[in-house]
């Protein structure tokens, strides 16, 4: 018993030592780096408060585990919107007062400045990222331009990279089968619609190389393992702009969604965390992040002035999922649909894979 | 020899020897126990308690029962109700509970709990809870007017099943059963996946163990019989990959074996295969088995080596001098002495392989998925109870195998080093 006491005292004193700073948990890699540069460092400089960035391969389960164990060490977490909504419903996150968010730089109130759906009960959007498909420009004389082209093995021969999971893949299959973006979830809500999506995937199943980690998609393309692959748009942008790879994104059939900052229930520095989120999701905060990585800012005012990538020359607008010319045939991922059907459709997906 | 009565032996201070010995031994035992106490506490805190907690989680979930008290009371009073046509009073209890959930902000927990067996329930509950406070009797019509899904028999069966704090539901789902309007039944073939993956995980792990044994046996023998200087050098070649990160080794195999990889390039260059006929050795079961066998090989070599090193070479020489052929010498003299090492290595590799998940996730492709990949999926998607149930089944299967192993080979013959 004594040992447990000593142990817990030691652990809690560790926790006390960390309490001076706001701890932000994000996804690491280029994304975590972008948030460090755009939010953490400027906030420390502007307010004099400390802040620490933690990497995680997915902050959502970590946050849930911390809150359930009653030992929360993270103040701000970067979550996918479906997770932000689900964890909020489960009482794992603190509600965020939308009225406390600052107005845009042009004076537009926050509620009007943010894009629709970018503020939820417990989360504020930091950016909009997208599931797109990309191809190697050296492989095809004629460029693929639509989601249907991705599934056309005759016209565009070669292997396809595809994320190993049901989410965004089923929607993409339906759009490749000619379902308009606006009707995708209505179709996918019926058993026939699910069958239709899998039937479309069946047509390319033998040519698919499945990937799971985000970094695998550009790697498969670079190695010549596949000629086309679905990917997170930021990864393709990084490979094309930073490394000069001949990769081209096709925005037709993109499935985009918000990424949210949220505060776990019982966060040690809750008030400071709320201040941090207000700062990071201000017009300037979102602009700064969009200049680090090609994910669209969720405020209209952040896009008023031209965004330039950190290399000083690349204009960001055409590379963002939210650019008007990229939204022609685009679908916003439905968090409500996936909260309901994730398990069910993933079981079906895994069973289909194993057939 | 005047007296034959045995005299009680005593120590110098007059205490009976037996008693003194017992007390000295007890003291030594206490001291020994104190030495292992930190380890015992450590194992208890970091191993046994989490496992017990996991087992508890796989049968306990109060997400619905705690947030819908009135409906739970009604289910308890009317266990044999007709799910196809629940009466008004059940709907009244449900609407009041929904209103309470909205006020307490725990609709998500309740909906998520029902969603585990009846997909689509989270949105249904959220919409219901938002509308509940404005609803007027008769509640049945009001709720059905909001969404006819509220009248589905399977939903009512799901809610009844979730009305207790404890449930076996998660084990049923992990055994590929689904809740239907007629109760739990065999799931649709398009969705059955868990039992298949269990079976496959054990099969693949067995195969990997066998491959590791075949590869490791000669290597370990060589290490054991070579002079020290040479064997140390070889040992480094075994240990170097062992110390290298798992991810690095997995991605190296990808670079080697993929279609545009080194091995295929080499074979095309040598004219063994054509450029169109490149072999698919990665992103499938082959890739999973190759990469996992390599990653786990040291766990087979090291126990084998430690056993082989102490087998005196004179035994084999004696067998040969008595006329045994080299095959008989190996089979009757050498092999039996290496059994403890084979047993330890196989057990180690098999158990590690059963729980592997990063390598199959990266190189597995369509048919290289193992059961641990699904456990990980449910962990990240907030269905921890189902993840716990699958993990508990995995644990039970391993313990059963361990028992069989103990019966066949005997755990006391295990030698890890």
Report on this structure:
The complex is a heterodimer of chains A (355) and B (417). Chain A has 355 residues and is an alpha/beta fold. Chain A has helices spanning 2-17, 29-47, 59-69, 81-89, 110-113, 147-150, 169-176, 184-188, 191-202, 216-223, 233-242, 270-280, 283-290, 335-354; strands at 21-26, 50-55, 76-80, 123-136, 160-163, 208-211, 228-232, 247-262, 330-332. In chain A, strands 1, 2, 3, 4, 5, 6, 7, 8 and 9 form a nine-stranded mixed sheet that branches. In chain A, helix 2 runs antiparallel to helix 13 (283-290), helix 4 crosses helix 14 (335-354) and helix 7 (169-176) crosses helix 9 (191-202). The longest helix of chain A is centred in the C-terminal third of the chain and has 20 residues, at 335-354. Mean pLDDT of chain A is 90; it is low at 1-19. Chain B has 18 helices and two strands. In chain B, a hairpin with a 2-residue loop joins strand 1 (177-180) and strand 2 (183-186). In chain B, 35% of the residues are buried. Chain A binds chain B through residues 3-4, 58, 60-61, 64, 83, 86-91, 159, 164, 205, 208-210, 212-213, 216, 223-225, 336, 339-344, 346-348, 350-354, and chain B through 38, 41, 45, 105-109, 111-112, 115-116, 119-123, 126, 189-193, 196-197, 200, 255, 258-261, 283, 361-362, 364-367, 369, 374, 377-383, 386.
Outline of this structure?
Chain A is of the alpha/beta class and 355 residues long.
């Amino acid at each position: 018993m004594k040992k447990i006491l000593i142990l817990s005292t030691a652990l809690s004193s560790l926790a006390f030592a960390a309490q001076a700073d706001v701890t932000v948990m994000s996804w690491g890699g280029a994304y975590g780096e972008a948030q460090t540069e755009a939010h953490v460092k400027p906030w420390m400089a502007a307010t004099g408060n400390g802040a620490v960035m933690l990497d995680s391969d997915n902050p959502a389960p970590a946050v849930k585990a911390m809150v359930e164990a009653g030992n929360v060490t993270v103040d701000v977490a970067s979550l996918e919107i479906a997770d932000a909504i689900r964890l909020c419903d489960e009482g794992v996150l603190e509600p965020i007062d939308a009225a406390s968010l600052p107005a845009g730089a042009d004076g537009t109130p926050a509620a009007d400045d943010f894009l629709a759906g970018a503020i939820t009960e417990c989360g504020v959007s930091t950016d909009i990222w997208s599931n797109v498909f990309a191809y190697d420009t050296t492989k095809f004389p004629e460029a693929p331009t639509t989601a249907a082209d991705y599934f056309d093995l005759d016209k565009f021969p070669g292997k396809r990279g595809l994320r190993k999971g049901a989410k965004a893949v089923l929607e993409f299959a339906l759009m490749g089968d000619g379902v308009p973006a606006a009707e995708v979830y209505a179709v996918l809500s019926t058993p026939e619609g699910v069958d239709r999506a899998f039937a479309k995937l069946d047509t390319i199943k033998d040519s698919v190389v499945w990937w799971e980690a985000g970094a695998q998609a550009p790697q498969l393309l670079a190695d010549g393992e596949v000629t086309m692959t679905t990917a997170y748009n930021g990864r393709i942008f990084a490979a094309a702009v930073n490394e000069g790879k001949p990769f081209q994104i096709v925005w037709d059939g993109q499935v985009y969604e918000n990424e949210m900052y949220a505060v776990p229930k019982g966060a040690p520095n809750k008030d400071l965390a709320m201040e941090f989120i207000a700062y990071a999701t201000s017009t300037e905060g979102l602009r700064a992040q969009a200049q680090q990585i090609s994910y669209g800012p969720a405020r209209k005012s952040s896009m008023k002035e031209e965004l330039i990538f950190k290399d000083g020359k690349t204009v960001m607008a055409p590379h963002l999922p939210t650019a008007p010319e990229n939204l022609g045939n685009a679908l916003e991922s439905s968090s409500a649909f996936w909260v309901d059907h994730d398990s069910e459709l993933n079981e079906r997906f895994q069973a289909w894979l194993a057939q | 020899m005047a007296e034959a009565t045995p005299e009680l032996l005593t120590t110098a201070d007059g205490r009976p020897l037996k008693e003194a010995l017992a007390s000295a031994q007890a003291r030594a035992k206490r001291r020994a126990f104190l030495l292992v106490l930190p380890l015992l506490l450590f194992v208890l805190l970091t191993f046994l308690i989490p496992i017990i907690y996991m087992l508890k989680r796989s049968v306990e979930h109060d997400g619905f029962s705690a947030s819908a008290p009135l409906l739970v009371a009604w289910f308890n009073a009317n266990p044999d109700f007709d799910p196809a046509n629940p009466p008004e009073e059940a709907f009244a209890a449900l609407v009041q509970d929904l209103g309470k959930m909205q006020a307490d902000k725990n609709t998500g927990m309740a909906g998520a709990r029902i969603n585990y067996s009846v997909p689509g329930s989270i949105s249904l509950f959220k919409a219901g809870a938002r509308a509940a406070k404005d609803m007027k009797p008769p509640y049945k019509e009001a709720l059905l007017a909001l969404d006819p899904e509220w009248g589905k028999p399977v939903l009512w069966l799901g809610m009844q099943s979730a009305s207790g704090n404890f449930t076996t539901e998660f084990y049923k789902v992990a055994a590929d059963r689904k809740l239907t309007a007629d109760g739990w039944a065999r799931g649709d073939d398009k969705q059955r996946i868990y039992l298949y993956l269990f079976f496959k995980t054990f099969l693949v792990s067995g195969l990997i163990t066998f491959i590791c044994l075949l590869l490791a046996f000669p290597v370990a023998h060589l290490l054991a019989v070579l002079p020290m200087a040479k064997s140390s050098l070889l040992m480094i070649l075994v240990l170097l990959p062992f110390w290298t990160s798992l991810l690095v080794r997995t991605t190296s195999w990808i670079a080697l074996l993929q279609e545009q990889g080194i091995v295929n390039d080499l074979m095309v260059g040598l004219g063994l295969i054509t450029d169109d006929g490149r072999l698919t050795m990665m992103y499938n079961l082959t890739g999973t088995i190759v990469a996992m066998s390599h990653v786990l090989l040291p766990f087979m070599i090291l126990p084998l080596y430690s056993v082989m090193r102490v087998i005196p070479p004179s035994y084999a020489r004696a067998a040969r001098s008595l006329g045994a052929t080299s095959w008989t010498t190996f089979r009757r003299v050498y092999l039996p002495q290496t059994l403890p090492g084979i047993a330890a290595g196989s057990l180690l590799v098999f158990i590690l392989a059963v729980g592997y998940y990063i390598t199959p996730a990266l190189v597995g492709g369509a048919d290289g998925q193992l059961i641990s990949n699904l456990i990980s999926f449910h962990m990240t998607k907030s269905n921890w109870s189902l993840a716990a149930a699958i993990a508990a089944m995995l644990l039970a299967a391993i313990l059963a195998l361990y028992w069989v192993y103990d019966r066949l080979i005997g755990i006391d013959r295990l030698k890890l080093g």
